[in-house]
Specification:
Blueprint (H helix, E strand, L loop, with lengths): L6 H4 L3 E3 L10 E6 L25 E4 L15 E5 L2 E2 L13 E5 L3 E7 L2 E13 L5 E2 L6 E2 L23 E6 L7 E7 L5 E9 L1 E3 L10 E4 L4 E3 L2 H4 L8 E3 L5 E5 L5 E8 L12 E2 L1 E7 L13 H19 L4 E2 L7 E5 L6 E4 L10 E7 L2 E7 L5 H14 L3 E6 L11 E6 L8 E2 L14 E4 L20 H8 L8 E7 L9 E4 L10 E5 H6 L5 H11 L5 H4 L25 H11 L9 E2 L10
Parallel strand pairs: 1-3, 2-8, 10-19, 16-17, 20-22, 21-23, 21-31, 31-33
Antiparallel strand pairs: 3-6, 4-5, 4-6, 7-8, 8-9, 8-11, 11-15, 12-13, 12-18, 14-15, 18-19, 20-34, 24-28, 24-30, 25-26, 25-29, 27-28, 32-33
Length: 605
């Protein structure tokens, strides 16, 4: 049987030590063993040479006259003076500002300290994973839930096959152990996000390293979830907390202060090792249907920016299960832009046939340019001849070669033309005749007209994109392949598509780029469109798990699931987390994910 829950009245943050009278009882205090990490250095506070002040320390107000008394303490306690451990038998130096007791092990002790009798009791909090293994509160972390809601077995305190849920074990004397605790979740800012009050502690056997005079109580497995949909599911509502990557789970005295905490990161165990936290950078382009028009979503530019911040926050929630973040939505690089003018000339268009001999004719800002292409020239060679002529005319031309699509002889090559000052030039057909007089080498002007929807790629041209997609994306190329570009457009042509992505593995000129339309944002939590498309980029995989395997509609990367419940497309497997780190992490050819170490709560960079 657990103890009498003296917690709420005896858990103290500070204690005034004065000379006792005969009528005064022995002072008593209950504190927590300090094994967590309050300063973010990944070392237990109980092992540090310099300890930050924290709620689990007992502050002592010691009269100056009593400070000359040598301090002797049992090995399970240490006295901190301005955060540093006092050597046993030493005296508190004059001028000390902070004098605190820190518990190193659970138990109860009657002390004679600074001339006064004091009873100090300590309880220890441990985190246990599904297999009953202790998780280091400082060196490891909790992880966000990757499995759908499920009922517990007949014994709710038994081990279970859940890689993420944690049981919190409280260890102490029978008189000191509470019957309940509160469990809170804190955001990276340190603000309280959620709370489970009066979580019952059930009696369990203590670990083998605990002395027989102590007893142990355990919570049921606590799930760290990302939103109200998971949090409120009736099967797990009483043991779930809304949490964020980089935040913390806190075990607190009932209605009182913090006992211990554990930070929230990615999966603790994987084939690539523990995954703490990574961050990717996004650039978002909200493309108007026409120049000067309304943004593709929302009532105005500010509303559109807020909507996309919400979409990125949803992606943060789901990919947090893999320890991956896209940064604070408030810090997003968001631009509302007009559709680019026709600035791209595609040689070979789609089929990439070599030249038979002829002319390429077009106008740049009203100036007509004519280039002769010889028989046998491939699109790449013809594009460079055209670019040389454009540069000679006083403009700036850059050639961008595309991958060879399935139905093509060679890859098309795009000539991107700008004015000397860097602004996009305007390309037009010649005053008379066709752009290409060559019988086999085609030439297309890349115009972006979103009034009828963006012409999207199909299976055949997915690795290169359509001419319209290339004209849109290449107009905003920042030359940084480690940034993921996200384009939000009013709609795709033909309907039926709400998002698509260009990935590194395809070897095309466009990589690490996503296009989503307003229908994708409108799908919200039913499809998690942006999070899904980001998955293609991070996993560097164009496919879906149900393309050739079993349909699992709870998986984020499912091809066609649309379900806004806790059993919708929102789960990521550990294998997908591992692949994201391998394909897009620091050792990838183009790293999209960079380590983002956990900072102390409230001090996120």
């Amino acid at each position: 049987m657990l103890g009498r829950a003296r917690f709420t009245c005896t858990l103290l943050a500070s204690l005034v030590l004065t000379a006792p009278t005969r009528a005064e009882p022995m002072a008593a205090a209950l504190i927590a063993v300090d094994r967590d990490d309050d300063d973010g250095d990944r070392r237990p506070d109980a092992e540090q040479q310099l300890v930050p002040t924290a709620p689990e320390l007992l502050g002592l107000k010691v009269p100056a006259a009593a400070r000359s008394t040598p301090v002797e303490l049992p090995p399970s306690l240490r006295l901190l003076v301005d955060g540093r451990a006092l050597t046993p038998g030493a005296r508190v130096p004059p001028g000390a500002q902070r004098i605190e007791l820190q518990a190193l092990r659970p138990g109860s002790h009657d002390l004679r300290l600074f001339g006064q009798s004091l009873r100090v009791s300590a309880v220890e909090v441990r985190a246990l994973d599904g297999a009953g293994k202790a998780i280091d509160l400082a060196r490891s972390h909790a992880s966000l839930q990757r499995t759908p809601p499920d009922r517990l077995g007949d014994d709710p305190l038994a081990d279970l096959d859940d890689p993420d849920a944690l049981r919190f074990l409280v260890i102490g004397t029978a008189d000191d152990l509470p019957t309940t605790v509160d469990v809170l979740s804190l955001a990276p800012s340190g603000e309280v996000m959620d709370r489970l009050a009066d979580v019952a502690l059930g009696h369990v056997s203590c670990p083998t390293d605990i002395v027989p005079t102590l007893v142990c109580g355990s919570t049921r497995p606590i799930r760290a979830v990302v939103d109200d949909i998971d949090r409120s599911h009736p099967v797990i509502a009483d043991r779930s907390l809304k949490t964020r990557l980089g935040g913390a789970l806190v075990v607190a005295a009932p209605g009182g202060g913090k006992l211990q905490m554990i930070r929230v990161g990615g999966p603790r165990a994987s084939a690539v090792g523990p995954i703490e936290r990574y961050r990717a950078r996004l650039r978002v382009h909200l493309v108007r249907a026409r120049a000067g028009g309304r943004p593709p979503v929302g009532a105005d530019d500010a509303d559109a920016a807020n909507l996309i911040r919400g979409e990125v926050e949803r992606a943060n929630m789901l990919w947090g299960a893999c320890g991956i973040s896209f940064g604070s939505p408030d810090d997003l690089d968001i631009r509302v832009v007009d559709p680019p003018r026709a600035h791209l000339l595609a040689l070979g268009c789609d089929h990439g046939l070599p030249a038979s001999g002829g002319e390429i004719r077009f106008r740049v800002d009203g100036r007509e340019i004519s280039v002769r292409v010889n028989a046998g020239m491939k699109p790449a060679a013809a594009a460079r001849v055209v670019a040389a002529a454009v540069n000679a005319a006083g403009f700036s031309a850059r050639v961008s070669d595309n991958a060879t699509i399935a139905a093509a002889a060679h890859g098309a090559s795009d000539v991107l033309i700008r004015r000397a000052g860097g602004a996009l030039s305007l390309l037009e057909p010649p005053a008379t005749g066709r752009v290409s007089t060559d019988r086999t080498l085609t030439a297309c002007l890349g115009a972006v007209d979103l009034e009828d929807g963006l012409q999207h790629f199909g299976d055949i041209d997915a690795i290169a994109g359509t001419v319209e997609e290339r004209a849109l994306i290449k107009a905003h190329d920042d030359g940084d392949p480690s940034t993921i570009d996200v384009f939000i457009v009013p709609s795709f042509a033909g309907g039926g598509r709400i998002g698509e992505s260009f990935i590194h593995a395809d070897g095309g000129a466009i990589r690490n780029t996503i296009i989503e339309d307003r229908a994708g944002l409108r799908a919200d939590r039913a499809s998690f469109t942006l999070a899904h498309e980001l998955g293609h980029v991070l996993l560097d995989d164009p496919g879906h798990p149900d393309d050739f395997g079993a349909d699992t509609p709870t998986r984020l990367m499912d091809a066609d699931a649309a379900n806004p419940s806790a059993y919708g497309p929102r789960r990521l497997l550990i294998s997908e987390c591992e692949r994201a780190v391998r394909q897009s992490g620091p050792s990838a050819p183009v790293p999209l994910l960079l380590p983002w170490p956990l900072a102390p709560l409230g001090r996120e960079p």
